[in-house]
Structure prediction request, 298 residues.
Amino acid sequence: MVLRCAAGIIAPLLLLLAAGCSNAPGEPARDAAPPAPLLYEIASADGSVEGWMVGTIHALPAFARWRTPAIDTAAKSADLLVVEIAALYDSTAIARTFASLANSPGLPPLDQRLPAELRPRLAALLLRGNFDAEDFAATETWAAALTLARVDAAGDPANGVDRALIAEFKDRRVRELEGAPAQLAIFDRLPEAQQRAMLAAVVKDSVAAAKDPERLQRAWLAGDAKAIEAATREGVLADPAVREALLVARNRRWAAALGPLLAEAPKPLIAVGTAHLVGPEGLAVLLEAQGYRVRRVS
Prediction:
């Protein structure tokens, strides 16, 4: 069961952080404005361009138009691509890793891992996803949360921006910041209390998610940094310990790795989940603290 969509690494509640998975096609927005995803130019103190940084989203409908002339220019100008996971195409290996981490015997029933008031919503969510409660008998709480968050998601990870860019760089270097095993291990290492907070947030927000599954996609396409930053403090990420593990600590690690990389001769295009770029704890601010000039490109 839990392997049904295991190739999507992180669920739609973290759609702007990392990969998601859904079978829902969605519908194109009418009278949509031209796309404007977040794209930054990174320069040294003397103004020399050292690279670019684009915020990705990891699941989109097949019809989505997201490329802009500025993104095309950055992609053509870069010498290498930096992503969270380089082997997104290897769904078999990702599913194997997911299964090895997600399954444990002797767990309590899934509804017993939730406050009593959320159990009716859990039952409705399971029904919409064509799941039985028994399907999660041996599934760790974090993995159950990610799986259930996919039920009402819009878009398909096959159309994700990171995958498109990896394909575009097939003749150039692609470097990963984490890799699938390390990324999934972040969830697996969460204390059970935080895992249950994740599950509770997914179930609690499931009604709103079902009504408007494309909310984060619209914010991403519009490059709405304010809305994206607000999303980093909602739902699952409203729990301070979960937010620290899934967002803030990763930003610090990535910034520490990216600073020296930008100082080298090859110019990278850094393509990571958009939520990692924004706010006072985002990569743009962290790289500026290292002396780089980070400027949004229209």
